[in-house]
Amino acid sequence: YTEAWDADKKSIHVMPDTPDILLAKANAANVSNKLYVQAWEEAKKKGYDMRADAIPIKTAKASRDIASDYKYKETHEKEKGHYIGCPSAKEDPKLAWAARAMALQNDRLYKKAYNDSKTQIHIPVDALSVQAAKECQTLVSDVDYRQYLHQWTCLPDQNDVIHARQAYDLQSDNVYKSDLEWLRGIGWLTEGSVDVVKAKKAQELLNDRLYRTRPEQLKFTSITDSPDVVLAKTNAMQLSDVSSH
């Protein structure tokens, strides 16, 4: 049934000048890299001829001469030692301008006038700021603040002297603690003190051995024929590997 169709499929012939074939050939020519660079490859094979006086060659030489350090400094080297018209360096405008610029940039010369005028300040003695400073100095001066009294000479049996001695003795730390001197070196045992008794009572309350009775100290005898014991034995026999074999 399909033999005639298969034989017919093999005998199909497409004309080379159909629009689809022409379009495919045109697309292949457009995307071909070989045809794209063919003109450039043929131009490279022919070579090139560039004269020495061509405009690009002259432009490149001029740019090279401008960028050359030797050409850049050639005029300066020729003019060295040929300054004419200035009897000294101070009269040369360029040197004078350079010296002026250096003086403006010099920090010492910039502050010279200020440093010279720092020590030439004249303040009147009755100026308000000076008077305020003197009063502040008087207030904070330790010499004026402390006025040491002269030595008084008093009789030892005067009432005010006796009263002062008693007040000194009451305020004296040595006299205040003199009644405790006899306690020094005396030993004291803490046994029976309030803190020790309180600590012992707290230890007894927190003692687990006194609070709880261990299970091994209790007298207990298990009944062998109770239902739960018999059931446990039966289950053990059923699950035992030795009895199953």
UniProtKB/TrEMBL annotation:
The gene is Neb_2. Signal peptide: none annotated. GO terms for biological process: cardiac muscle thin filament assembly. This is NEBU protein. PROSITE patterns: NEBULIN. The keyword RNA-binding does not apply. It holds the Pfam family Nebulin. GO terms for cellular component: Z disc. One of its GO terms (molecular function) is actin filament binding. Keywords: Actin-binding, Repeat. The lineage of its organism: Eukaryota, Metazoa, Chordata, Craniata, Vertebrata.
